[in-house]
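Researcher: Here's a chain I'd like modeled. Treat it as a single chain, no partners, no ligands.
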Amino acid sequence: MDFKQLIEKSFNLTLENIVALILLTLLLLVISFLSFGLLAAVASAGYVQAIIRLAREGREPRMQDIFSHMHLFLPLLGFSIVTAVAVLIGYALLVLPGIILAGLITYACLYMLPLMTDKQMPLIDAVQESWRMTTTGNLADNIIIAVIFIGVVTIGGSTLIGTLLTQPLATVFLAIVYEEKLR
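Model: Modeled as a single isolated chain. Structure tokens:
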């Protein structure tokens, strides 16, 4: 994969739609905060789908996109609870198993939300397909994609302003890579 081109395309697409993406990200954060995290996963599903449509069709994200996949509430809530408990158990054993498990889950489920929203896959099928997408092909490319995504989100996640700028960039990057993988 040509990472330079992917990053440039992501940056340019984010910059062209920066106002809509910042507002959408802010809405996602507010919904997640006000619902004590209960709506975070399902709102993220709508967020991801809006950005996939931006990457694919050039359609500017709209605020109502956040609420477009509420039918995924129960599966995503259950998945979030199970993964949170597993990671907490890993942290309780010693910190390292929790970090390893969180990293493995993040890597394995990198394309889970795009597959659930874009291809209407059930949760288990989406996790399996995401795992297949991250483990087939050039493994080094897949690891670099995950590192770029996680790195951008982590770097910006330390402040609100950083989150408002880097979360859209990382998600646009993931959407563009997802589109490339579907070809």
